[in-house]
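Bug #77: duplicate submission created two jobs. Keeping one. Sequence:
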Amino acid sequence: MDNQPTVSARQPCSLPRIVITGVGLAAPGAVDLPEFRAKLLKGESGICEIEHRYIGRVPAGVCSFPETKYRKKKENKRGTRAGCLGVYAANEAVADAGIDFSDYQRRRTGVYVGLTEHGSAETEIEVYNISQYGYDVDYWTHHHNPRTVLNNPAGEITMNLGITGPHYSIGAACAAGNAALIQGVQMLRLGEVDMALCGGISESVISFGIFASFKAQGALAQHADPKQASRPFDMERNGIVISEGACIYCLEILDRALARGAKIYGEVAGYAMNSDARDFVMPYGRRQAQCIEQALERAQLTPADIDIVNTHATGTKQGDVEECGALASIFKECPTTWFNNTKGMIGHAMGAAGVLELAGNLPAFDDNYVHPAINVSQLDPECALTNLVLNKARQVDKVDTILNTSFGMVGINSVIIVKKYTA
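Kept job's structure:
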C-alpha cells in the first residue's frame, strides 16, 4: 500500500485565487490578532491553572474576551460556549475584513467550522445537574438537543449574523480547523459561495472527559508552574495542556477582494489532507510527510520555498518525535526554512489549534519575525530540527511562505500553505 504511485495534486492555473481578508480570534491571553502576535513574539504564555470538577487543579488555556460584544448575556446562556467563542470570532473577522454585506449576499455566504468534539461538555454538565436531584430527568434542560448537535457552533454564527447560506461543522480531530479552512477554499472555487467564514473552535476546557482521557493515557501535562507545563520538544515534556479558543477567517476570491479594496493577509497556495490508516492515537510520521509533500505539490512549491513551518507538536513524547522526523526528511537541505511552535504559549486548542497557529504567523509577512517555541530548557535530540527557533523570536531576511501542520487522532493529517500576496 505504501508503494503505490503518488497521485498528482497540482492545481490547474485557471482556478480562482483565494485570499484571507479578515481574521477574528480568541486565544488564551489574547482577544485579537495584534495582541496575539505581540505575545507570541515576546514568548509570553497564556496558560493558567484551573480547578476542574473531579480532576482537581490542572494547567489549561482559558479565553477571556468580551462575551457580550456581539450578543446578549441571555443569548450566550441559551447557546453554548463554543457558540459564544464562534460568534465573537466570526464578527471580529467580518469587521476586520471591512464586510458590511453590501458587497456580498448573506445567502451566498458559507460558514464552515472545524471541531474536535462538541456536545460532551454540555452533556456532562446536565448529568451533573440532575445528579443533584436524584437523576430526575424532569430537571434536564430542553435546550440540550440544539446545544449538542454537531452543527451548533456554525449555526449559532449564522443566526447571529443573519447568514442564510450553508453552514456546517467539520469533525476532523485536531486537524479540524485546517479542514474547515480547506473546505472554505474548495466551496469558493466550486462557486457554491461568494464568501466563506471558516476556521475552528474549541470549548475543551469545560469537558471532564477530555482531561480524564488524557490523564488516563499519561498524556496530560503537569508542572509546578502552569505557564511552563506546555513544552513541546523539551526533554522534560510530559503531555498536552488543554485549551479553548476560536479563530475564524474571512475568505474571498482575489478579484472580488481587490475590487472592494480589501487588505489581504495572504493567499492560500496549497493544502492537503490524508489518513494514517494505522492506529487510534499514535501518529505516523511517514504519512505526515506524504501530506506535506502533497500540499507542496499542489502549491507548486519546493521545500526550499517555505520560509516558516509552524509545527503541530503537542508536547507528547512520541508525537513530537514522529513529526520532527517527517519534517527533517523533507526540509533537510533548506537553510532558509525556519521552524516554530505555538502550543508552548497557548496550549492545545484542539479544533481551533491549526487556524490559531496559522493566524499567529501571518503577520510575519510584514515584520519578518519568526516567533519562538518556548519552555525548551533541554532540547530533545530527536526534535533538533535545523533552524528551530527556541525561546526568543528571530528576525529573518524575508517571509513569503508559511506552512502549517495539524494532525489528529484516528490518523488524520492536514497541511495548509499560505503565501504573501503578490499581484
